[in-house]
Queue: 4 jobs
Job 1
Amino acid sequence: MFPLRSKDAEFPHLPRGFMITNLGHSPNSLPKVATLIDILRYRALQQPDITVYTFLENGERESDHLTYQQLDRKARAIAAQLQSFLAPGERALLLYPPGLEFTCAFFGCLYAGIVAVPGYPPRQNQSLSRLQAIVSDAQASVALTTQSLLANIEKRLAENPELGAVRWVATDNLNSNLASNWQEPTLCESNLAFLQYTSGSTGTPKGVMVSHGNLLYNEQMVKIAYQHTEKTIFVGWLPLFHDMGLIGNVLQPLYLGIPCFLMSPVAFIQMPFRWLQAISRYQATTSGGPNFAYDLCVRKITPEQLASLDLSSWDVAFNGAEPVRADTLERFAATFEPCGFRARAFYPCYGMAETTLFVSGGLKTAPPVVYSVEGAALEQNRVVATVGKQEDARTIVGCGQTWLDQKIAIVNPESLTLCSASQVGEIWVSGPNVTHGYWNRRSETEQTFNAYLADTGEGPFLRTGDLGFLQDGELFITGRLKDVIIIRGRNHYPQDIELTVEQSHPALRPGCGAAFAVEINDQERLVVVAEVERSYLHKLDVNKVVGDICQAVTHQHELQVYAVLLLKTGSIPKTSSGKIQRHACQTGFLKGSLNVVGDWSQDSQNKVKFLQLHTEVESLWQQLQTSKQSELSKETNFLAN
């Protein structure tokens, strides 16, 4: 894959592991390498004063820069500090605010042979339970952060024994002269680079073991699939502790030897215009995010702001949400076409932490593939193309094809045999980008990463847990195996129901709802939770919103809603990457722990009906008793007379 060779005696300045194959290549092209350390060391030697990362404060002002030489020196200083008290292979938690210090610390860990564990700093009043769980699972012995963030966290460490026992180191004030003390570790492709903790959209977060070989292979896949060159320019706002932000927006530019302009996710969320403004300003060619990012731009960017944009340079607008929505692509393209945006720039793709990042993507020169299938057939795991306009048609956007030596198979999750092209099945993946498993979870690793086809014995494959199908090599995602709602023997994909719900009433926030099933009296029943737009909180007509939701779901999906919970703005459980945590929503519903501003359920409705009926019966009973007493009184009076 990336074979190691000894250094040529004529090039003693090159790091261990380089394979010199083309002495006439440009500075941007790489010789064959074994680790990420080799790449940065090479860039620092060949392009020392070239700026690779620029951070935009508030998404607008250039506040920090890193050249390859500066990054290399800071990484060596941090590595030397870590090597003074840690052994190779130990784990280090990375907690950093938005900025370039995270990148320095990440490479500092790699330079020391330490396994990095990216995390996100908790908010002021946020529980530290998830952070504690990660530290405990990874058995991290040190946490790296900034001086200012450490000052805030230290106040809370006494209340959290797991975190208090960890050694905390601020890396932003280390003496750069420590770089001279760095000892290059002996590493190869199979060595772990970092643990990527899964976002936990369907279960407990697990540490995915990502090696240097995984990263280099996946970066090559992305380069080829996206057709990146030395002229590529990145703009990104995705969080760096997440695989898409780290591997896509940080490591791919380093791999290519090209510039990247970064801003914080908060800067983007507060003003989506900043993202497109940066693309326009720096004439970026590659940038992207999930569905909600494109939807947010359509809703929030004003006509005046739109008039100032030039998006003609943007030729890879990747969308990694699952699944990608056709109407999102259409609305964005129609809105920003006057700015020079081209619809063919959209690049739907698919991936996950267990495959390092990238699994599939389309052809850069081709528009996204859109496929219309019969909804009723899809509910039976069958793929039937629609003919003409059909009321139950489902439009699905293709997520491209496989690249290099990776293989994608669609497998029946019960029989473990290959599905035909007309069947929906579980997506299985094999290739050098598939990671080494889950940290310290042998049973789950065996179950997820070592699957074999029952009929041919082919394997091992990674079981993604996602459902989809292949048509002419194009991968279509239909949902998650664990999230599928099965009611009366029919499969319903929650994202389809969630889209229906969010479009049923303007008070509901787009991309902030969840649909799931609960068992009531031995029957699966549908529950919907949805966030309310902040502007509607004080004038919320719960009955109207609930009524519209139930009517829309019944009409579109022939399903009866059991319960609806309307949630406070910003309170629905999400992963660090912005995915809705349906499992957490289900748990919160059952425990009554969601932040509810209005609710309804059939049980409460039935209870009301029962109370009304009980009151009516009681009234009739009283009337009857009064009538009987009256009649008795008359009879008594008659006899007495």
Job 2
Amino acid sequence: MSTKLIECVPNFSEGRDPSIIKQITDAVEAVEGVKLLDVDPGKATNRTVVTFVGTPERVIEAAFQAIKMASQVIDMSKHSGEHPRMGATDVCPLIPIANVTMEEASEYARQLAKRVGEELDIPIYLYESSASKPEWKNLATIRAGEYEALPDKLTKPEWKPDFGPAKFNPKAGATAIGARDFLVAYNVNLNTTSVRRSNSVAFDIRENGRIKREGGKLTGKPLTDDQGVPLREPGACKAVKAIGWFIEEYGIAQISMNLTNINTTPMHIAFEETRKSANKRGLRVTGSELVGMVPLKVMLDAGKYFLKAQQRSTGIAEEEIIRLAIKSLGLDELSPFDPRKKIIEYSLQDAGFAPLIGMDLKAFANETASESPAPGGGSISAYVGVLGISLGTMVANLSAHKRSWNDRWEEFSIWAEKGQSLKDELLRLVDEDTRSFNGIMEAFRLPKGTEEEKKARKSAIQAATKYAIDVPFQVMEKSLATFEVIKAMAEIGNPNSVTDAGVGALCARTAVRGAFLNVKINTGDLDDKDFVASILQKGEAMTQTADRLEQEIMDIVNSKI
């Protein structure tokens, strides 16, 4: 999946009144293209953590509407609770989930902060990766003194907010907005009931490690630096916080971890380091538990890690990689692990973000055969391309497992991974082609009463049409790229599967030529004639290349049959 996704986890200063919380979450759910994943209120803290996911533009809109609603229904002058807070919306982090860099997420955070500050008159401080000052990266620094300190702080030049007025807003307070890494709450199960022993393992793996003591003994005097600060022996995993505890419900001890940067220490590495430490202490890891949801990449990275350890091809279907990750990490030991509910991208897919590729074969065929004009030839061309590269990838995986070619598994694994990547890109375009067609229909439905409306409508139609040309052109590019894998498999792959490579080549050529038909029919309505001439010239050249490559592959296939 290559759709851009970000997660937003705003914390609102209300955890006791369900009607107020519902008004805020209703504001989130009213924004199309966003999925509300979780609502977690706390009575003692008088605080609710809300989690929602979607494309960046939609998430920003939902976050703004939620912050706006919170400023209307929460009165900070009457708020009390155990958790530190400074605003009705206390903090609003944006977290890159898929195909979004931290720099891009930070820019989205700045856009949101600017709009909230200007339109809602709320002082906004940027924090974490979006911070405008090094000291403001830390939320605790910004929130020092909490709501009660704001009237005085906002009069000082050094506390001038990044956006919004430098004046006290008694009802809404102030808000921190920024981009940060995804945090994974993850527990590893041990075959012990001892909290002391599980804590020893936690100290081995967490970044903060343990305090150094004289003689290296637990009973030794703590060692300190010149300032009297205890010296620490760092643990094995950076960006990991961990403690050991006993869970009465399960009758076992666990290592409870927060993985604060999954790029620094992925989940499977934290698991492996826990296993190594437990083994040294006579303990055994029996499984693990994921708290909340996780990005798809985390599970794929874990599955590929264990596949490589077995010297097996990593270019297999996504679902198979995830199944191996679940079993290798023991994620189903304590309760069933449903990838459709635990993986963010899958949850979004099931919510309608990718309706076509979520269908089974029969449903997809029925939808295509219905009276609706979409999905049409563009989506079908993309799917034919999917089938072609799937066959090429199959040959690569069969070659990686050929008994007499054990020393070549990695060579074919690389080809299979390349095939899987192209397959996933083409799968995305199956739905994207239909979305681009719907975009044109939406543009035509825009009002056209005034001259300004007519101008805006025409501009929207032209932009939507250009995108409806670009999508099938992407199908052409990706389908043409599949010939590299397919031809290689016809030449060097398992000879018993050479005809599969041949069928793959036939599909790839059909995908290129079919997509070009969609490109050509959409160019007729575009005013930008230079763009049209350029795209048609490139398309003609690509179809000729596809014809040539298909023939070359068929010659190879026929020579080996």
Job 3
Amino acid sequence: MNAVADMDLISVLRKHFGFTSFKGNQELVIRNILSGRDTFVLMPTGGGKSLCYQLPSIVLEGTAIVISPLIALMKNQVDAMRSFSEDDGVAHYLNSSLVKSQVNQVKTDVIDGKTKLLYVAPESLTKEENIAFLQQIKISFYAVDEAHCISEWGHDFRPEYRRIRPIINEIGKAPIIALTATATPKVQHDIQKNLEMLDANVFKSSFRRENLYYEIRPKKNAVKEIIKYIKSNPGKSGIIYCLSRKKVEELAETLKVNGIKSLPYHAGMDATTRATNQDKFLMEEVDIIVATIAFGMGIDKPDVRFVMHYDIPKSLEGYYQETGRAGRDGGEGKCIAFYAYKDIQKLEKFMQGKPVAEQEIGKQLLLETVSYVESSVCRPRLLLNYFGEEMKGRCNNCDNCLNPKKQFEGKNDVVLVLQTVLEVKEKFKADHIANILTGTLSQAIKSYRHDELEFFGAGNEHDIKHWNAVIRQALIARFLSKEIENYGLLKVEAKGKKYLEQPVSFMISEDHEYPDTDDDDLLISEGQGGGAAADEELFMILKDLRRKVSKQKKVPPFVIFQDPSLEDMAIQYPTTLDELQNISGVGAGKASRYGKEFIEVIKRYVDEKEIERPQDMVVKSVVNKSGLKVYIIQSIDRKLPLTDIADAKGLEMTQLLDELEAVVNSGTRINIDYYLDDVIDEEHQEEIFEYFREESESGSLDEALKELGEDEYSEEEIRLVRLKFLSELGN
């Protein structure tokens, strides 16, 4: 074994894989395996984990068994391994995708000693016939890939992974190498304990990826922000993660209608479509993949330039792994996540109904995510701390470093936190410590009678959020740590005890404030002005133009464009008929009938004033209500009574009239004479129609009621005739 361990590995590397040097810890890991020792490898995405077991499998006698969770990933790995060899039998996989004849071929190659690497799914490993087969062969070592799947604290827990060790004992012992790209100290401990390899040699590569930029943005009009970002970075590859399949489909469609080459990817799609979409992304036929976490494992695209999270993920491990797919070639990698606390509440709701232990773990992991998001500490430093690595100084490549928040002197607060943790014998979590300091009478505080402690309420001039920020920054400073066996219990480290003896200045950054809700529903194309102020001068010019056109066409000004539409034009500055259709209350009909003169005036104004147009605000949306509008228009074409249409869709009559007004105002012509003749006598119809043609200047409903007389006409009657009037004269 020693002769094998001492061999010239560079020659083997060059001969079989074509490389002339190892990356990072690769050589140390390989030598450890060759010497027959158990090995734990923590190597972030892109670090070259596969080579750590591929090379020793070639050198050692027998077959290496690689336990891997994903069938697609196995196929890629086997293909890669075969490309280095003249014999396809050098690598095989054994999983549920194989037919009987293929399984027999695999077993023959293994028995004949051709196969150096055999990939097995954990489910296949448990089958009696496979156990019996593996007992007959010489196994060089076992490699457990994606080993974080063992731990319930990992981001991809798989119960079948916890059965790996008993099965290995049944098949026959051999050295084990466990590999993962993301594991906190807690998860690492779980993996080693479960695989009975607590004495393994541990090789950790740094989690620091200096080329990645991290930023959290408030979830305000996130879709608009995403479109703006992609359009200002044309041709760059990106992945956008969403939590739900529905949101993946919606967002991919919205990007598409805004001229962005994008495709969806999630587990609910059939395998062929998923594979096709993935290939189109890899082959650069599309720039953007919108995906759930189902996408990414084993995706080795080196030039992904940005990874966005439309929704905050359930854990920091998941988040780190997903962001790690950016900039794997060492080039630019932007990691931008959108956050509203509502997302966290949504995730908490998903946990209801799960076993209590699972809920507890889920809540702890969510708490870590919230802490990361809301903190104003250097983001890579926070992430590295979470994974048990210490980073000195700041990265100067994240939103918090480039736009630092106000700091305050935290010396006394840190001392208070450390004293309180010691006072409760280091047996409680951060939220409990924060409750003691703020004087919050939670159930746990009452049960443990911690309201009788001298520190109870000692920090009540601050809120719980403040104390959580202090605790978080004491953890980063290594004054505190979280216990591994009982995860989350705060312990005072030697460094913290030393600080208590001799406290010095300790500056703490204020946390971020993020909205409770996201207001993505307020898309401009849904009729919102986006909160921006209209250009008053342009607004008046457009009103004058409307007056002029109304005289030419002999219709009241409001028939052409209503005031909210003119205001929106004075915010958006549309200069083409396409852009004009994104203005609230303007559809294709209105744009083609009246738009030409308006966009010419706006273009002239923009050129003269040298205005930079906020084109990022013009977002075409896949309007969810479009199905309802189509149903209403089709029902009117079939001359269905409006009351029946409203009943069929569960609408009040006023809501149906709102929908009809939106349809007519955007330029679609409808004919409701059949219904009007049934519910309003002809004379009344004529009187209301004449009022809007001859007297009304604004089309206001209130003014019409006043002028026509509320005793004589109902609001509903006036609205119905106004619809006929606008449809006939305006459209």
Job 4
Amino acid sequence: MPVFLVGGVKAETKTGSCGEAAFWSLDDEGTLKVWGSGEMSNYSANTVPWKDCRSKIKNIIIGEGITQIGSYAFSNCEKIETVSLPQSLEVINTRAFYTPTDNKGTIILPPNISFIGIDALCWKDIKAEFGRTVIELWRAGYDNAVDAKTGTSLSKSTLCPLSLSYDETKYTVKIKAKGKPDDRLTCTLNGTEITSNETVVTETALPGTEVDAVIKAKIKGDDKIHECKVMSGYAYTSGYAPTVDAIATATSLSIEYSHPDVDTKYAKVYRKEFYVYQGTKQIKHIEGKDNGKIKLSGLDPNSNFTVKYLVQLSAKGHYEYKEYTTTKNISTEKLLLVTQQPKVISVGNVIIAAESNVADDEQNVGFEWRRTDWSKDFASNTASACIYKGKIEGYIRNLNSTVLWKYRPYYLANSGTYYYGDWVGLDPSNTSYFEPTVHTYDEITIEGNTALVKGYALRGTDGIKVQGFKYWKKAGTSVHGMAKTNAPSNALTVEATGQVMTATLPDLAYNSDYEYQAFVTTDEGTYYGEVMTFSTGADPTGIKNVTTSSNHVSAGIYNVSGYKMQHLQKGFNIIVYKDGSRKKVYIK
């Protein structure tokens, strides 16, 4: 076992182990010696081996072979005057020499230290030789060191992150870097040597990806290149997380979702997908939907669902992908099916109805009816029905009016499960007078100067002679969705058929506001549904090709979903110019 001599006198009062192959001794004069090989163990501030005599330690001598000083090893040794460190030392861990106030004297650091922890050194005077130690001093926040040989300052060069910006093709990291003549080191920033006070380095990065600016310092006479990270930031993370807002009815989900228009600028959207799960089972997969809304029908009521929206992005000129997902947990409501009293409009002809919280676009709703005197051996009659704002209605013809009947509403989920309302009795001979039922759906598809509209018409006691839609240019103010007694005299008419009817309104004026409503005409008069409004877009007539001058050059053509196209396509096109301007063009 090596023995250290202090003042020529051997004095060992206490000894012990401070690691698997490291040992220590402390003499009466306050000199602590550590020897051996490898690493000293980490210790807490109150459990170091010499915790009971920290106030006696004045001098610390660490012998060759020790490579690492453990955390808190010499913390709170407040009377330290001298410290001798070996050339073999590589790591000084967190708070290794921590004291509330600076230690006395000077500490001289060997040149090959590769890590200095937080608050590891509590000295006003720190000396070091050029080498890895200088870089680690900077990384640990020390800028008060001097060269152990020349006495010149080892303060940091000026390394300051100025900005992280982006344009249409790349992300730009700007660093201010200035070296001192006596630094004896060469700085490079991401491979670019710094030769002026400001150096700009450009990097292509994915949105949301961490961008690092790294100073590489090569010290004269040292073949190693030492790195010091001086900046870390995220490249344009704002706004890239998609949003999903889902509204659950008893049997369907209406999901509105969006993400920024990134395709034409910082990144390209390569993939968009929806996944819907009931429990762990995937029940729906939708791919390539544009921003907007999707509807899922036929779901089980009073059930839990998970909706996952995935967007896959790639930065321009970059071949890696980054995925962003948003997940929503949604519960459908408990099903409401309340059977209403029937409307016997003539002997044997009956309108049956039910109130429900089923969505208007649901298809699998209807009614079941049977004679009250039938046994279970006789199957019920069934037929599908239509729904408008929660009211399900159907029309039964030619019932036997000499017997009593009963009926109930049903809903059929995609899982194959039937859900029923209560039975209600029906006397097909008990007639009353009823007007027809007319509604205008708030669903419209506009293409150029045409509009596809939807309505609802169910006869009352009197038969329907004509049904369809009336439409006219909007004049003044009106309330969308309100019923109107009579359409204006200048209204145009388009006829339609069916309980749920659709029709195309042709030859509309461009850049105009319109109103429309469903109607039914019987022998007793005309009955109207709600008034709805819509607007047409700009007139695209004659636009087939786009030419640009040398000062207004096209950078790409995109569809409304953000996908780049080689040529103009039918419908709306977005042309992006190199000067940053855009133009929307419609092609028939």
